[in-house]
Amino acid sequence: MLPVNEEIRWGVVGPGRIAENVMADFAHVPAARPVAVGSRSARRAAAFAERHGLERAYGSYADLLADPDVDVLYVATPHPQHHAVALAAIDAGKALLVEKSFTATTAGARHVVERARERGVFVMEAMWTRFQPAVVRLRELVADGAIGEVRSVQADLGVAREYDPTDRLFAHDLGGGALLDLGVYVVSFAQMVLGDPDTVAATGSRFPTGVDADAALLLGYADGRSATLTTSLRYPTPGQARVFGTAGWIDVLPRFHHPETIVLHRAGAEPEEITLPPTGTGYSHELAEVTECVRAGRTESAVMPLADTLAVQSVLGRAGDQLGLAFREDPHVLR
């Protein structure tokens, strides 16, 4: 356990779009300080470091992993690269926040989790949804029985993207497709509320590159509960979620994966609108969770435990198999 006033030093693996968005929220986590970035392009790393005031920029991921003055790594590379980077980082004793999807495959996720547990190193999936204040309140309401016994979840997340086979979203080798990029949100939300499903049924379509263009998932539970989930890169959707119980329901207003407002509907009562904006852009809450866990010497988050990450990755894998997808981890990313 580190002293309570110990500052946690962060390094960024992969200076892409999502990393750019996350950086501003470090200002809302006083105990966390980003100090370094690694890219396979020294030029990109240097430019990112200059934009965000980082002390060090590395032209390889391996050099960043070897930096003794970095406590936590935020992994924001394409999905298939997470596996190799995470394993090497764990072996280097670095705590990790790994972007979703956690890996490209279920086996890859299992491998990373097993290694983290063996080495006693903190690892968490960067599912910022679970840390949004409005979602935290939703979980409290459900736990308190505000809508009775929860029986079903609906969630959708879709965007219309022009097909470009050279873009990461459509590239098979980079883990493109709707499931890993957007479907992870709807699956994680359902798993958060209902737990691990017993059955997964998926239908959808693919782009010419072989990645999924859209998918509809039906998650089934032995006691009859269910989740109906939709994700797409081919057409837009509202981005809303609903949790249905025997005594009411809760709407999570768009976009549900980083909402400000939920609406509680209870039998015999007027709808109750609850607005709880995030701090900063919304990434600050997951950054604070990792920072606090590392300072406390924990190896997992209670809010986003590794068991949940594995369950979500399993659902994505089972759905992908039914859609004819064949993702692989990239073992060469550190070379």
UniProtKB/TrEMBL annotation:
User: For the Gfo/Idh/MocA-like oxidoreductase N-terminal domain, which residue ranges apply?
Assistant: 8-125
Q: Which GO terms describe its molecular function?
A: nucleotide binding; oxidoreductase activity
Where would I find the GFO/IDH/MocA-like oxidoreductase domain in this sequence?
136-250
Q: Which SUPFAM superfamilies match?
A: Glyceraldehyde-3-phosphate dehydrogenase-like, C-terminal domain (SSF55347), NAD(P)-binding Rossmann-fold domains (SSF51735)
Annotated keywords? Oxidoreductase
A Pfam family matched in the record: GFO_IDH_MocA
Q: Which PANTHER family match?
A: OXIDOREDUCTASES, TRANS-1,2-DIHYDROBENZENE-1,2-DIOL DEHYDROGENASE
Record-stated family: Belongs to the Gfo/Idh/MocA family.
Annotated protein name in UniProt: Predicted dehydrogenase
